[in-house]
Specification:
Blueprint lengths: L16 H4 L13 H17 L6 E4 L6 H11 L4 E5 L6 H9 L5 E6 L6 H12 L2 E6 L6 E6 L3 E7 L7 H4 L4 E4 L5 H15 L2 E2 L1 H9 L5 H18 L3 E2 L1 H10 L9 H13 L7 H8 L5 H13 L3 E3 L4 E3 L1 H7 L11
Parallel strand pairs: 1-6, 1-7, 2-3, 3-6, 8-9
Antiparallel strand pairs: 4-5, 10-11
Helix pairs in contact: 4-5, 7-8, 7-9, 8-10, 9-10
């Protein structure tokens, strides 16, 4: 049986309209990712000082950590606009050619899920990124000719949750490559507080901490849980999101103190009980859970379980940790598991 996912805990879902209003506009407003911000700040100041465009940037990491937001922030810092496109939407070479030839000087192009670019379209990007030229084939057969089109200076920002699927030729054409990591509870508390102010919601400090604790290290989830708590506070309380009210709301949505939900718990139970702690392949786990393939588990479940120390991914397969057994309240751990 397929385990339904809580959409509020699915950071891979597109941002909802209200989430756009919560985006920071400038680098100092962007909370978290301090090392990445420090490196980007130097690159921005240097590019502005030389009156050049910013180097192409590749951002990778789990969904919901702010890759799209950071692309817009970089464009704002360079006093430029940012066009956004999903890689699967680029079906033909002409699609990419039309976008690139219409970019203004210094404009940013953000390609999300860049690992999903079709090979012919990816190859078009090589000369566009390196030489600011576009090779366009005119005609067919022996009479076909290649027309070189000069492009205006631009910055490509690529984002992916699967950095390992990006080809080396494309990877090497990015001047900067940065990984975004999960946020700390303190950073998420600040984000929840800031978002509540933007939305005009009264959020007690303890309430912000309760939401942050369950947000799986992900700002997008913070904002979605904040909205659920806002609804609950308006219906069940006096509109103020306190710690007790946030706890009650998120318990109703079956989100525990660690931010785990039904699919996470089912995954751990299958791994620890049915497969005796592993090692086991992700496709086997997916089949046991009624999931169509292992992709959803790899993207949405496993990264956070690894982050909190419940899961090890090895060459032999997935292995449960002792902490995972403790979480499930299981006293018996196979003797060979931690040898």
């Amino acid at each position: 049986m397929d385990h339904a996912r809580n959409p509020d805990l699915d950071p891979s879902l597109p941002e909802e309209p209200f989430e756009y209003s919560l985006r920071p506009q400038r680098l100092p407003e962007y909370i978290g990712q301090e090392k990445v911000k420090a490196r980007l700040e130097i690159a921005l100041k240097a590019a502005l000082g030389r009156r050049e465009v910013l180097d192409h940037v590749l951002l990778y990491g789990p969904p919901g950590l702010g890759k799209t937001t950071l692309a817009h922030v970089l464009a704002n810092e360079m006093n430029s606009a940012c066009k956004v496109i999903q890689a699967p939407a680029l079906e033909k070479k002409g699609d990419l050619a039309a976008i690139l030839t219409n970019l203004d000087d210094g404009e940013f192009l953000f390609i999300d899920e860049i690992h999903r670019l079709a090979a012919p379209i990816e190859e078009m990007l090589y000369s566009a990124m390196e030489d600011r030229k576009l090779d366009i084939l005119i005609g067919q057969g022996p009479s076909a000719q290649t027309l070189k089109v000069d492009l205006r200076p631009f910055t490509l920002v690529g984002a992916t949750t699967r950095a390992g699927l990006i080809s080396k030729p494309l990877h090497d054409r990015f001047g900067m490559v940065h990984r975004l990591d999960y946020y700390t509870r303190e950073e998420l508390t600040v984000i929840a507080t800031r978002s509540s102010q933007v939305l005009g919601v009264e959020l007690a400090p303890e309430g912000a901490g309760s939401i942050a604790r369950r947000s799986r290290g992900t700002p997008r989830i913070v904002n979605r849980l904040l909205r659920r708590c806002r609804d609950y506070a308006e219906v069940k309380g006096d509109g103020v999101i306190t710690s007790d009210l946030a706890d009650a709301c998120l318990a109703l949505h079956e989100v525990d103190d660690l931010g785990l939900e039904g699919l996470d718990r089912a995954y751990l139970e299958a791994l620890c009980v049915k497969f005796r702690g592993g090692p086991v392949g992700v496709r086997t786990l997916a089949a046991a859970l009624g999931e169509s393939d292992g992709g959803a588990l790899e993207d949405l479940v496993e990264p956070y379980l690894m982050q909190i120390g419940f899961l090890d991914r090895t060459q032999q397969g997935r292995k449960a940790t002792e902490a995972a057994y403790g979480y499930l309240g299981l006293k018996t751990v196979p003797n060979s598991l931690f040898s």
